[in-house]
Amino acid sequence: MQRPRTATTISGKVVGLGEADENEWIIDDGSGEVRVDGGSRKKRNINLSQGETIVVVGEMDDGEFDAFSITRSDGSIVNIRSPKGRPPWAEKEDE
Question: Model-level pTM?
Answer without folding.
Answer: 0.82
